[in-house]
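Let's sit down with a protein and look at its sequence and fold side by side. We need material for that, and I hope you will provide a protein of your own picking. Once you have written the record down, we can walk along the chain together.

***
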Amino acid sequence: MSPKLFITLLVYLHEGEEESFLKYEDQVLPLLPKYNGELLYRIRPEKINFVQTPTEYPYELQLLSFSSAQDFENYRQDKERLSHAPLFQKSIRKVLLLQSQSS
């Protein structure tokens, strides 16, 4: 079995921009299969579920997988995905992206 690339995203939104974020995700998540990507988990944890955090709470956590780093890069550079950048910029304040690879 080939190694897979896993991407974990912690997404932090601008205040009151949840609707814009959801609209953005509705546009870009369907593009994942085109690049051998899969959304494994999409979680909106409540603050009570955090045991500890030295910083702020993320709005959403996502775990994605791709067949390769190149597939992930191709997804990131997809013209349709990039056309939704204004929604991304309006809604998302910052994203913490963590990568790992299965062996």
